[in-house]
Design a protein that fits this description.
By secondary structure, this protein is mainly α. The chain has a single domain, classed as Arc Repressor Mutant, subunit A, CATH 1.10.10.10. Helices cover about 50% and strands about 5% of the residues. The chain is built from six helices and two strands, in the order αααββααα. It has helices at about 5-20, 25-35, 40-50, 75-85, 105-125, 125-140, and strands at about 55, 65. It has a two-stranded antiparallel sheet with strand order 1-2. It starts with a helix and ends in a 12-residue tail after the last helix. Keywords: DNA-binding. InterPro entries: TR_Rrf2-type_CS, Tscrpt_reg_Rrf2, WH-like_DNA-bd_sf, WH_DNA-bd_sf. One of its GO terms (molecular function) is DNA-binding transcription factor activity. It holds the Pfam family Rrf2.
Length: about 150
């Protein structure tokens, strides 16, 4: 499964906003804090704003705020907001695939993968990720990266 840079950056930006909801954060500040290319992040914020996941405020006190309760924003929703279709095989939904002969069972596997991934990402909220990140940071997690086991 491929997770786009756009989806990764969108989730990280929202987690950054959720971690400090007392004031608007600038795109520049979020880009620096998360080591995300600024120009790319600006286009991500356009998609997030269009989906109602963030709101913006202009002016010297301006920046971005979370658009809704972070406990209700799921990773799956964020990914769909910036990438469109959640899971595709050669730009087709697994439900629309039909292979001939002995390959007939393959689309079922892709549908199963999609269902499992969606279930996890639909129950994982931005609030939960912000809490986990704050706990890891508070515990002195040495490296910013971690390995994930399945």
């Amino acid at each position: 499964m491929h997770i786009s840079a756009k989806a990764d950056y969108a989730v990280r930006a929202l987690v950054e906003l959720a971690a400090d909801s007392t004031r608007p954060l600038t795109c520049e500040g979020i880009a620096a804090a998360q080591e995300i290319p600024f120009r790319f992040l600006k286009s991500v914020f356009r998609d997030l704003r269009a989906a109602g996941l963030v709101r913006s405020q202009r002016g010297c006190e301006g920046g971005y705020w979370i658009g809704r309760d972070v406990g209700l924003i799921t990773v799956a929703e964020v990914m769909t907001a910036v990438d469109g279709a959640f899971f595709t095989v050669r730009d087709e939904s697994p439900a629309d695939l039909a292979y001939p002969g002995t390959g007939r069972a393959v689309p079922g596997v892709w549908q199963d993968v999609e269902a499992v991934a969606l279930a996890l990402l639909r129950r994982t909220t931005i609030a939960e990720l912000a809490r986990r990140g704050a706990a890891a940071e508070g515990a002195g997690a040495g490296s910013r990266r971690r390995e994930v086991g399945v």
